[in-house]
Amino acid sequence: MDLLDELRKEHSAAQTRRLIAYVGADPERFSRLFHLFSGDEPRIAQRASRVVDGVVETFPFLLNPHFPVFLHNLSRKDLPDAVRRNSVRMLQFIALPEEYHGEVARICFDFLRDPGQPVAVKAFSMTVLHRLTETYPELGPELAFILQERLELEKPAYRSRAVKILRHLNQ
User: Fold this and answer.
1) Could you tell me if residue 171 is inside a domain?
2) Which SUPFAM superfamilies match (predicted)?
3) Distance from first CA to last CA of the chain, Å, rounded?
């Protein structure tokens, strides 16, 4: 199957499920998909991001060899919102390689502080940072400060997630 042709052909939930099933746990197929996901063609990257997200949710180990490129991609300013959203969503569920904890924290804190980021990116970033506070409790006060500071300025989805995390951080 030609993944590029399939991503160009159709953008639907059914197509996403088909491509997730096709890639499965196959590292070579995932590498081909990841190349499209991290490429410079925004529409293809957006469509591929949904598939990468679905595959990584079931087979998180497939992302490991691509993690440096994944983080570099996530730091790009020109990254489409959908790709950023799906990328940060993935970070919620995978075991983050320890050598990248600092960079992941920096990226997620930057997203939280950026008023222009979509609420989903901020909510997923909160969860990633909250997970990191289990290993690095010293991140907790900074996370709590940012969440509290922006609480009244943000949308209900942000507030809902922030309140839950703040409750846990204040225990």
Assistant:
1) yes
2) ARM repeat
3) 51
Q: What is the pTM of this model?
A: 0.92
Q: Give me the count of residues in the chain.
A: 171
Q: Is residue 102 part of a domain?
A: yes
Neighbouring CB atoms inside 10 A of 70's CB total: 22
Tokens read off for 124? 């997923």
In this structure, are residues 94 and 57 in contact, taking their beta carbons and an 8 Å threshold?
no
Spatial separation of the C-alpha atoms in residues 20 and 37, rounded to whole Å: 13
- Candidates 98, 110, 95; CA nearest to 143 is 110
User: Which tens digit of pLDDT belongs to each residue from 127-149?
Assistant: 999 999 999 999 999 999 999 99
The alpha-helical segments, DSSP class H, found in the chain are 3-9, 13-23, 27-37, 42-58, 67-74, 81-93, 101-113, 119-135, 139-150, 156-169
Q: Which two tokens stand for residue 170?
A: 């204040």
Look up the domain containing 106 and give its range: 96-171
